[in-house]
Design brief:
45% of the residues lie in helices and 21% in strands. The chain has 267 residues and is an alpha/beta fold. Strands 1, 2, 3, 4, 5, 6, 7, 8 and 9 form a 9-stranded mixed beta sheet that branches.
Length: 267
């Protein structure tokens, strides 16, 4: 399945491997909170995990360290190579067409593909594929970029909402479609919280919960200093926990995480 050339070129720059470790300012907050939320749902070790759009393997290696078996799929060859170098069982592939048997894994991570599939039908196909490969009772973790994330980030943290960027952000606010091309981030899709929950339910999942991953801390413009200070770091994490499921604050998130279950019976 073809990958948008702008998205390919964006990831070919090779920056994804460092994004969560500080390459993107609030990346460490995103990583810490994503791990914390995943941890709440994964009892013990020994689970079969499929990490779809797993990038360079940052979550895969962490889960392997916890005793899980992880297979990673990504459509960017560089990411597959980087993940393999880190010891992950990594293969080239696309979220819309997984080379994985039905009902064969306990957990699917979809932390990235929904950001980049701009057609609703493609996003639904990726979610249905996750549903197909999960065993009944298996758990899906699906991340999205929140609809207004770029508006907040460009205006408040970066002060970069200029004449060139404003129309791109305006379209994303109206429609979710972010035509960043090679200028800003890359081409993407930004979800409303209710839309993410509805997409997951339409694909056949139940018990969906949607979390605000970073909380308001992604907007502080001295993030690195605060994160480096253990006490201030705890405040950033505590602030995120305070509003993680507050419905009104989901709209002001940077990233959203939907957690849902494949029903034991039916579907
Ligand atoms: C922002 S990165 C996130 C990587 C990693 N999952 C994480 O959370 O750090 C988005 C990832 O989605 C991948 N991706 C983009 N389109 C995809 C698709 N159609 N199917 C699977 N993965 C895709 C990209 O190659 C990239 O590795």
């Amino acid at each position: 399945m073809p990958l948008d050339p702008d998205i390919q070129a964006f990831y070919d720059r090779g920056r994804e491997i460092d994004r969560l470790r500080g390459g993107f300012p609030s990346g460490p907050l995103e990583m810490e909170r994503t791990r914390e939320l995943i941890n709440r749902y994964l009892p013990g070790g020994g689970l079969q995990v499929l990490d779809v759009g797993g990038g360079a393997g940052v979550y895969a290696t962490w889960l392997m360290g916890l005793g899980h078996t992880v297979r990673l799929i990504d459509p960017v060859v560089l990411h597959v190579e980087q993940a393999a170098e880190a010891g992950v069982d990594a293969q080239f592939g696309d979220a819309r067409e997984l080379d994985q048997p039905d009902a064969s894994v306990d957990v699917v991570l979809l932390l990235g593909p929904l950001y980049h599939l701009r057609d609703a039908a493609d996003r639904q196909q990726a979610l249905r594929e996750a549903h197909r490969v999960l065993r009944p009772g298996g758990v899906l973790f699906a991340a999205a970029i929140a609809r207004f994330a770029a508006l907040f980030d460009m205006l408040i943290r970066l002060d970069a909402l200029d004449d060139e960027v404003l129309p791109i952000v305006a379209e994303a606010v109206r429609t979710g479609v972010f035509r960043g091309g090679s200028k800003v981030f890359t081409n993407a899709y930004f979800h409303l919280p209710t839309e993410l929950a509805a997409d997951v339910a339409t694909a056949g999942f139940e018990d969906t919960e949607v979390f605000n991953i970073e909380g308001p801390g992604f907007l502080v413009n001295d993030f690195e200093q605060r994160w480096a200070d253990p006490a201030r770091r705890e405040i950033l994490l505590a602030a995120a926990r305070l509003v993680e499921t507050a419905p009104e604050m989901l709209g002001a998130a940077s990233h959203l995480l939907a957690v849902a279950t494949k029903p034991e019976h039916g579907h």
